[in-house]
Amino acid sequence: MRPTIPYVIAACLIGLGVYGVLARRNAILVLMAVELLLNGVNLVLVTADVTVRAVVPHGGQVFALFVIVLAAAEIGVGLAVVLQLYRLRSSVAVDEVPLSEEEEEVKA
Questions:
Q1: 77-104 pLDDT, tens digit each
Q2: Cα–Cα dist 18/32, whole Å
Q3: What transmembrane ranges does the database entry give (predicted)?
Q4: What's the CA gap between 11 and 17, in Å, rounded?
Q5: Over the Cα atoms of the chain, what is R_g?
Q6: CA atoms within 13 A of residue 1's CA, in its CB half-sphere
Q7: What structural domains and CATH numbers belong to the chain?
């Protein structure tokens, strides 16, 4: 198997994920970009497992399974945070989130 095509696709997924995290203002879209990043990493892990037989058999696939579990937990917690942010601010824009109590006192 030629690993070039899966690695290029994984690089594109990771690049799109990084762009989405850095350029988006909506928290839901940022979470989707993080999912793209994790899917790119999964593709790299599985491709490396298939092309390079390491000491641990199917190690890349096992790590990819752990990344999928981590992504599911991240989405659960992330959506809970976004829903609470929407209830408090009626907006899910990342730019409008106060990072300290001083910023909130100045606006009030």
A1: 988 988 888 888 787 887 777 777 765 5
A2: 11
A3: 6-24, 62-83
A4: 10
A5: 18
A6: 12
A7: 4-107 (1.10.287.3510)
Q: 9 to each of 24, 43, 94, how far by Cα in Å?
A: 22, 8, 28
CA distance 13 to 53: 24
Average pLDDT over the chain, rounded to an integer? 84
Calculate the alpha carbon distances from 32 to 36, 61, 96 in Å. 6, 22, 19
> What tens digit of pLDDT does each residue of 55-79 get?
667 777 888 888 889 888 988 998 8
Position 10 pLDDT exceeds 90: yes
State the Cα–Cα distance between residues 23 and 44, nearest whole angstrom.
24
C-beta neighbour count of 60 within 10 angstroms? 20
First-to-last alpha carbon distance for the chain, in angstroms, is 61
Contacts of 63 (CB under 8 A, 6+ apart): 45
Task: Say which residue, 55 or 30, is predicted with more confidence.
Answer: 30
